[in-house]
Structure formats: C-alpha cells, structure tokens
Amino acid sequence: MSIVAGLDSSSAYTRVVVCDADTGAVVKQGYAEHSGERDDPQSWLISLGEAAGGGQLADVRAIGVAAQQQGVVALDSSGTPVGPALLGNDRRMQTAAADLTDALGGRAAWAQAVGAVPQAAHPVSKLRWLARHDPATARQVAEVLQPHDWLVWQLLGRPDRRTTDRGDASGTGYWSAAQESYRPDLVELALGHQVSLPQVIGPADSAGHTPEGLLISAGTGETMAASFGLGVGLGDAVISLGASGSVFAVHHEALTDPSGTITSYADATGMHLPVVRTLNAVRVLRGTAEVLGTDLDGLSELALKSTPGASGMVLLPYLEGERTPDLPHTAGSLHGLRRESMRPEHLARAGLEGMLCGLADALDVLRTRGVQVRRVFLLGAAADLPAVQAMAPGLFGAPVVVPQPADYTALGAARQAAWALSGGGGAPPPWPAAAGQSFEPGDELAVGQAIRQQYTAVREQTYPGAFQAAAAKPSGAADAPSYGQP
Predict the structure, then answer these.
(1) C or N terminus of the chain, fewer CB within 10 Å?
(2) Peptide bond into 325 cis (omega under 30)
(3) pTM attached to this predicted model
(4) Are 3 and 63 in contact (CB under 8 A)?
(5) Are the beta carbons of 203 and 165 closer than 8 angstroms?
(6) DSSP state of 218
(7) Phi, psi at residue 184, to the nearest 5°?
(8) What are the residue ranges of helices labelled H in 270-331?
(9) Is residue 209 classed as helix, strand or coil in its secondary structure?
C-alpha cells in the first residue's frame, strides 16, 4: 500500500491528511495554527512542520500542497522576501485594481487577456499597489511566488527551478487560462519591470523530490484542491456559504466576461472553474436572526413555520452592497410588508429565501453562459440548516448535495500527490466522491420557481436591468469600492 499526504496551508492554520494512495482512505491527520504573523511565510512553514510532526509523514511517498490563494511572496535576487507577504484578503489594493483596469484599456481588455478583471485580491493588483506605495521595495523584486509555490520550493530544498500549477496561476491576473500562458507585459504594467515567474506544470506532474526523496506534486490553490477532494466534475456546481457567497462550476473551457462578473479560473485536473461571487450570504441569515432575537437554528425553525413565498414578503439581501448584480453602493430592502405578514416566521423565511435567491441569481449567470448544472454541492455551516436543505433544491432548480464534514482541500492535495506518484497521465486515481445527504427538488421545483419569479419581479422593479447593465458596462469603467473579499 502506497501512502500519500495532502497539506492545506490556509490563512490561519495548516491541516495534514495522510491517505492510502489507491483508495483515498484517511490514515492519519494533523493540525497546527500559524503561531507567528499571518503574513510571515516562515510561520506557514513552522506550522506545516508542527502539523506534520510526531511521525505523521512516516512511510509517506508523495506530498501535495494546497494553500491560500492570491497571496504574493515577492523575492529579491537572492531568493529572500523583500517584506511581509501580501495576502489574498488584503483590501488595500482596490484603487490599484481600478488603475490597472484603466491602464490596459478597460474591463473587456482584461477579460480577453486573462479571463478576469483586476480586483483587490489579484496578485497583479498587489504588485501595482507595491509599486505605488513602496517603490524602493518594488524595485528590489526579482521574482514573484504565491504561498503554495513558496511552500513547494521550501520543501524541495530551494532548487533553482520554481513551479506552480495552472489553478493557482489562473488567479494571478497575469496568466491566461484560455491561452495557458503568462502575460509578462501585465506584470511590467503593474510593477514597472519584469520579474521571474514560476514554471506552470501539469496537474499530474511532479515538482520534484525533497532531499529525503519524497515526491512533491504540482500543488494548487485551496479552491481547486477542495473541488478535487470533493470529486466534482462536469455538470456539478459548488455553492459556498460564508459571510459572502461563491458559486463555481466545472466547465470544459475558460469563459471571457467583460463585465467582470465571472472570473475564469483553471482547476487541478485540466478543466476550468468559472466563479461568480456575491457579497451577501450567511451575513443575511445572521442579521435576520439578530432582529428576531434568535440564532441560525432558531431562524431555520421559524422559517419552516411559514409558507413558501413568506406571505408575499421579499428581502433583497444586498446588506453590504452587492457584486452580483453589480450594485456596490446599495443596501438590503424588505418588500411586500402587510399586516398579515408581520410575523416572525414570515420574516425568517424571507431572509432565507432572499439569501438563496441571490445565490440562485449567481448560479444563473453561469447557466446563461452554457455551463451545465445537474447538481449543486452546498458547503458551509448554514448548509446543515433544515430550512436551507428544504428550500435550496427548488430555488436552485437542481438536486443539492450537502457533503459530510471533511478536510476536502487537504484531501484534494493528497489525491493530486497520488496521481503524480502513479506516473501522471491518464485519469486521476478514482477515489470515492464526497459522501453526504442528497435533496431532490421533487414537487417543490414549481414552488421554488414561483418564489424566484416573485423575487425577480421585485429585484427588477427596484433595480431595473441590474444584470443587463453589468453586461453592458463600458469597457473602461472602473469598479467601485468592494466591501467583501473579491
């Protein structure tokens, strides 16, 4: 039996899973929080060592590394970081992103070039920000890595060759998923000079071997690794319920979207992951629960006492402004309030329906571009709420799978390691797909679509043509400030 390991280095911790390479069965697990500053790459390396300590990697033959996406580790000519890492969730770069958008000729030019319009999260925006705010440090930058690239390089003993994978590269803003190539001119546009970039290797390729002889696979970003760990494929969409929301699906080609609503990522298998984000998901549920003096479980229980359509009430859930549709300066609003609807259970249901309809709008953005959605994987703690599970299939118009809790990012990294260990090529190892509960739309499909129609009518009356306006946004129009993670 061959043993492989997957590492998930997030913004706060490192998880390690050790698996049977043939079956995917988890043999051992480890965990450690980053003990130092979160923007210190050495703290990532220390927590990796702690999570993998105590013999966790004994008998392991290959390791896959997944890490937080869109961070920048800028190195000087000696391979030393020029300063703290610039993390993916750093919001200071929004103005730099807007400057870059205009500098290339607008949103359509960027979408055509790399499949994404610059946002604060993109490394290309971070390089622009560094050049503007600390030009002396920017001039020292000779090489740019992302967190997963840097960790792989360290594990390999800092060889001359630096590598990355197409999944992580596709989130930089200077690598095109459609063309499978870098745009060095965009790096120079952002930073003011050329730098060395890691070699993009294939999903099943090996980055090299550690001094101890362990194979290190290509590695990838957290989203791509989680998708691989879940076992999603063509026809599958994944909706993640955090404070904000994200919707992505597996697709056979990169999508170009001049409006910037869709960001075109590559995945960890050779396919593509078009992503649409919303600024409002579970924050809508928490806010509604606070108004009603309860928690999420209580909100779910109340909502199930109401009727579909919440007695005519519609909550447009744009509490933090919204990205999909592009309404950055708006606010949430409650519509259809009548005396008979002024009950806690109806407000609870309006909150849940509003959140889910907002995510269904994002899902429809992908559908209108030809992305097939045969089932939806629903992630996040709120996915376990009975009301969410009851409403989501009808509102999404597809079966919903709620996977059992597991370290899917680390599992995806381990599966990639097993693929590379097998010699690469062909299909990935056929590990079991994520186990979980499945919920079918059934008779609720018609009800769900009626709720969507009610919601859409209110949205269109309140913000006429919001989605059409985004699609027709002038190519040179800059993004307004974003209040959530891009």
Answers:
(1) N
(2) yes
(3) 0.91
(4) no
(5) yes
(6) -
(7) -60, -30
(8) 282-291, 296-303
(9) strand
Contact 391, 169 (CB under 8 A): no
Q: Please answer whether residues 412 and 454 qualify as being in contact, where contact means their C-beta atoms are separated by less than 8 angstroms.
A: no
Q: Is 37 among the domain residues?
A: yes
pLDDT at residue 19 is higher than 70: yes
How far out from the chain centre does Cα 450 lie?
30
What DSSP string runs through 440-486?
--TTHHHHHHHHHHHHHHHHHHHSTTHHHHHHT--TTPPPPPP-S--
Distances 345 to 304, 381, 453 between C-alpha atoms, Å: 8, 21, 21
d(CA 173, CA 486): 13
Dist CA 175 CA 182 (whole Å): 4
CATH of the domain at 30: 3.30.420.40
Nearest residue to 28 (alpha-carbon basis) of 67, 49, 59, 66: 59
For residue 381, give every residue at least 6 positions away whose Cβ sits within 8 Å of its Cβ, in sequence order, or none.
Answer: 241, 282, 296
CA distances from 456 to 97, 267, 314, 325, 452 (A): 31, 32, 10, 12, 6
State the total domains in the chain: 1
> Alpha-carbon distance 231 to 323, whole Å?
28
- C-alpha closest to that of 237 among 375, 366, 362: 375
First-residue to last-residue Cα distance in the chain: 42
Rounded CA-CA distance 314/471 in Å is 25
Kindly report, residue by residue over 241-253, the tens digit of the pLDDT. 999 999 999 999 9
Residue 373 lies in a domain: no
Written as six digits, the tokens of 414 are 């381990």
| Torsional sign, CA 111, 117, 123, 128 | positive
Instruction: Determine the residue type at 258.
Output: P
Q: How many CA atoms are closer than 13 Å to the CA of 400, on its beta-carbon side? A: 26
Structural domain for 64, as ranges? 3-223
| pLDDT band (50, 70, 90) for residue 469 | low
Q: Is residue 269 within 8 Å of 203, Cβ to Cβ? A: yes
CB atoms closer than 10 angstroms to residue 468: 12
Radius of gyration from C-alpha coordinates of the chain: 23
Is 258 within the bounds of a domain?
no
Per the prediction, the chain carries an average pLDDT of 94
Q: How far apart are CA 119 and CA 272, in angstroms?
A: 20
* DSSP at 150: H
**DSSP assigned state of 157:** T
* Distance between CA atoms of residues 446 and 258, nearest Å: 33
